[in-house]
Amino acid sequence: MRVIITEHARKRLKDLRQEKITANDIINAAAGIPGKIPTATRFRGFFAKSGRVFDIVAKDIPNGRLVITIIGK
Fold it and tell me: CA 65: distance to chain centroid?
């Protein structure tokens, strides 16, 4: 499955709250969500390789899975 990360989400990766979360962590988390996501939904409790916990907001579009934002804990 193709995972698309929005510019907003990429910008948030530079914030202090999301430090040590990489784009690869986000791709792995989004690709690991089973089923279809018809509307923007928040998924909680993913772990980055650094050990940082984060949530993602994602939805499915015709081109793949769109990651709208990332929320670091």
Answer: 10
